[in-house]
Amino acid sequence: MHASAENVEIIHEFSIEVRDLLEQLEPSILELEKVCNNELAQESPEIKEALNNIFRLFHSVKGSSGFLQLNNITETAHVAESLLDRLRSGTLNIVPAHIDLLCSACDFTHESLDYLDKHLDDEGMADKARGLIDSFQKILSGEALPAATGSDEKGRENEAEGPFSSPGISIDLEQEPDNLKNPKIVEFFLQEANELLQTIEQDLLLWIKTPDDKELMNRLFGNIHSFKGNCGFMNLADPERLSHTMETLLEAVINGLEVDRSDVADLMLGHLTAFREVLDDIAAGGPGRIIGLEERLAPIQEFIQLEEAAGAQSEEQQPKLGEILVEEGIVSQEELQSALESQKSRGAHIKKQDIRVSLEKLDTLINIIGELVIAENMLINNPDLAGLELENFSRAAQQMNKLVNELQEMATSIRLIPVSGVFSRMNRLVHDLARKSKKKIDLQISGESTEVDKSVIENVVDPLTHLIRNAVDHGLESPEERIAAGKPETGVIRLSARHEEGDVLILIQDDGRGLNREKIIATAKKRGMIDGDGSLLSDTQVHNLLFRPGFSTAEKITEVSGRGVGMDVVLQNLKNIRGNVQLQSNPGEGTTVMLLIPLTMAIVDGMMIRVGKSLFIVPILSIRESISPAADAVTVTPDGHELVRIREHLYPVVRLHTVYDLSPDNYELDKGILVVVEAQGRNVCLFVDEIVGQQQTVIKGLSDFIIKTGNVRGVSGCTILGDGSVCLILDTHALVEMDKTAEMHAR
Amino acid sequence: MTRMNASQNTLDPDDDLFDDEDTQKDKYLTFRIANEDYGIAIANVTEIIGIQSITEIPEMPDYIKGVINLRGKVIPVMDVRNRFKLPAREYDERTCIIVAEIDGTSVGLVVDTVNEVADIPEDQVEPPPKSKHKGGSYIQGIGKIGKEVKILLDINKILYEEELETLSEAAQGV
Lengths: 747, 174
What we know:
Chain A is an alpha+beta fold.
């Protein structure tokens, strides 16, 4: 099909429309699971309705794609329809394999849409479509899918109803789809793998020069991990095994294994050549095996006396990894989709009158309104008017002020979308994870209509995915364990959202085994993160250890989670949107993770403070209290550190005038004011001259030029005040960090 | 210099000069710092504003004076005097901020006075002198208008040169 200019428009519309349809599809498909779990009978009205719903949606997809001659999408939708038709008529009983297949049809359609957006046709998806259609045909003709074997005997019997094939569809006799045989996937793989190898190579070379660079090692680890993942996805056992061994060695080194690091780097550099040969081999159509793999593995294993078990384990879990990567691919597609989706909630099936507006236009509108607020302020408080009796003007000004405020509120609310889109995505994730981990999980969602700024919610997707995975992988026990502990067999994960004082609170609760304090402390000790036996640490302090980079208590290392690269990323992502994470846990009863996120990234509740002539904004969220200390509450340590005693605690003092090189009104602590701020579970006191007052602050980024040119610390952005001047917003995280480094220098 | 026009504190951006790519060729906005006349390509200039209150940013090089609010947009301001390591001077009513835009980044440049927009054809521009002085690298060429000489500046280098240097210095240090 050739795309003319007007066709482009039509295709674009189609893509958006089908994405909407798909979004409704997934929850309906997952409804069918209830049949498999024996919660509902296939004949029940709920399931009938779900089936009809899915049928109708696939039918719509088929109709629109047929019109545009997108044959691959049409044919896939058609076979899905055929399957649904038989499920509907009851000639086929629903088994998990059907659900999986319908899910993959959705995924395929997603992928095709992405392809369509780029290439304006779906021809590149032909191979995948054929593979998928083939799988459908097999099930329709009574042949069970490999994935379905053993999962449900009953389903199998009923499937043997005689061959069924729909006319007009070419049946490809090739076996199940193999990623290595799909030229598109191979091309992507090779490209990415080559890039990764290049980065790894450069980093290894750098590592020889700077063997103690922790950050570099972490980066290396991450890249090798990604490479391993890619190889696993392509079912390349040899390179996957070699990279897994490299990864394990690197982890040991990061954790303080005493070896000559440049030797390790040299060794790894040698292996990169082997990887490159593999890639060349694959490019030439070979199977991608490493010649002399054992000889290559031996020296690494010598380094760490790696047990054979670890190697075997990696092979055992290989198919799993592939699946996970596919699924990770899906996640990113859905993110793409969410960029296009309108404010549509799962609950909002009723058609609303919506129009799509580009985010750019919306942002411009909000910016202009922000300027209007400032201009209004400058007009009404104009010094030229000072001292004049202007009754009519004042009235008009008041009216104007009211309107502008309404306008601003409205503009902010336009950008808010309900969290339901993100939450419903977790359904699918939990479904897949439950299947993989053989656990029974009930995901309960509430408060999905809570609205958050679009850019904020986008930044919450990754952390949420991570946390749900953690809850499934680490939190919930296996059914046997649960029964033994006297709990119901099915584990519960509760995902909820609600507004709380201008912020949004997202809770992820599981009723699993809870955090193991002793185990965390033991690991932290092993990793050298804490001194002593840790018995003095508060629960919060112990939980905070989980957020340190490189922490992991997983008994066995899995490719999903457990390398300890998760929680610190969660924290980082939330910090990026000025949010926070907190953990609460009761052993045996479960864990609650609280994500506190701002409603919007455009406005922050701020407290204005003054130091000398300069004004700053401190986000109210991080302020605990403010005091003017008595002279005898101040202690100075022998190395010149000032501590202030507030009730039972001693807090370090950060003198803002020193940090920002200003001349304050007073240098004596008891003559100024201390603002106690909290970040990362630590408190520090900011020494300021005056607290000016609270105000809603419209956040503006500092210019890129400033960030490139200088070394700005302790400032997260700026805002424009009513008089038009620019005021800096303090970054409390950085200020707390600063205090920490100062402490270290002092030692 | 003879053709100083102090009243020219604002240039209307809707002026024909800014409209057409072709008409911008060989046109330079000239300004004065200390006793020299400089010029920058008009294509980079978005507007000229009077001096206004600047908010300091901590831990920046001394030639970055801070940020200003340009109709709701926060842009950094560089003092070209400081940039050239010339002695500082009190800002007065003639002091101007030239707002230049390079690759989507707006930066304000503080200069003593803005003169005019001058037409300097290519054949009237001499290559820059080979100078070991640090400022030498900022010079794109020497433009001549009759007997007058304008030092034509490479705005990109003015903004980013130091950064490159510190980066490479840092790399050597490793």
